[in-house]
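--- STAGE predict ---
source: upstream dedup step, 1 unique chain passed
mode: sequence only
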Amino acid sequence: MSTKKILVVDDEQNIRDIFQTFLQEMGYKVATAIDGLDALEKVAIEKYDLYIVDIYMPRMGGLELISRLKEIQPDSVIIVTTGYSGLDVDFRSIRQSAFMYLPKPIQPDELIRAVEAGLAQSRESIPDAHYQEEEEPVSEPDKKPELLLLRGFSTEQIYSFKSTGTLKEYKSGMSIPMDKDEGCMVVIERGFVNVYYNTDLVDSLKEGDVWGEETFINPQAVFTSLRAHGDVVIRHFPRKKLIDFFTYNDKALTDRYTINLIQCIQVKWKRSIVRLALLGRNVPIDEDVFDR
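--- STAGE serialize ---
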């Protein structure tokens, strides 16, 4: 399946940067525009699967842009955002064929649900033949997401590494232990898992994601809790078994794993910064962090 394309239209640069980074982390191709006129220039070159449009912008605002987009691309799917509340904005947006309305500040889970629903609507509006032609050559339903943590490992090494873990099933809402007995590092084999700091939802994990890998270096690093969002299958890795695994392999593999581990932590650092910003907390954002 080809990568879905999203255009974020907002006159606030920090909002554009936050949305772009967050959605790119989810695997989408994301472009940005500073207002309606800038957006139309981009649409003249390339059409998008989903548009996220602010209402109040200079030169051309969101309501006029929505009208123009519907002329150019009648089946366009548009999510409207604004920092101004009021029924007038909501009803006018809906009348002009906006798919969904999200008042700012937007919660991360709200944005995820809106984007996924919007892209599903976008797909439904395109004839099935188009998608069959696009998807068939690359259909790999059994392919698992690549683990960044094991990048550079051979197939045999990956199998051997995973065999040190233990599979366990958890029902929706169950807490997932991360302790010395069960294993402080986990891999999501199937389903979705929510990550909490105290009672705050701070991250969401999907199939192929890893959590707690930093405990390989620092066993006391875990300060979050996990809860199953739906039925899930988790692979637990006790730290002692991981140490034994690398003890019986060459140093090059340990070095490779350490590099991968650092990269995993950097990815999570970026994602955490974006999520905190989306939550509207007063957190200083280092613009360079998005390029590291």
